[in-house]
Amino acid sequence: MLPATSRRVPRHTAAHVNQQIREETRRNVERVAAQAPAAVDRRVRELDAEWDIERTLEANAATLTAVGAGLALLVDRRFALVPLVVGSFLLQHAVQGWCPPLPVFRRMGVRTQTEIDEEKAALKALRGDFRDVGGDTPRQQAVDALAAARG
């Protein structure tokens, strides 16, 4: 059975690395909570620009594929193996949530989108974004909740 998309990367990451990422997230929220309210807005903007593990792996794979193809065309056709290997690793990541560069990027602190979103939600809660959620009807409650989540 395939792991859920949101859990597949942490599932294939060493427990101590997942713990380091969670601790860094907690420290980030704690640091921002101790600052002026404008710090929350600034940090949320930073999180919106943060590259998640998927984007990092995609950029890495695209770069290696382009370099391998270029070398195959210009230097030696045996370099055509590079795009084949990179493509198979990318497919393996899509299916299983693991590929060879994943442990390296995770040790560097590259987070999943879910991990980034958790920090963002904590900051929005500190900012008070969720205080005014709750209309008179379920539809209005849903509209209010989605608007607060988008912040």
Structure write-up:
With 151 residues, this protein is an all-alpha fold. It has one domain. Helices cover 73% and strands 0% of the residues. α2 packs parallel to α7 (113-127), α3 (38-49) runs antiparallel to α7 (113-127) and α4 runs antiparallel to α5 (81-96). The radius of gyration is 20 Å and the shape is elongated. The mean pLDDT is 93.
For the record, give the distance between the C-alpha atoms at the N and C termini, rounded to a whole number.
35 Å
Q: Averaged pLDDT, please?
A: 93
How many DSSP H or I helices?
Answer: 8
Helical residue percent? over 70%
List key phrases describing it:
151 residues, mainly alpha, 8 helices, elongated
How do you describe this structure in short?
The protein has 151 residues and is mostly helical. The chain is built from eight helices and no strands. The longest helix is centred in the middle third of the chain and has 22 residues, at 53-74.
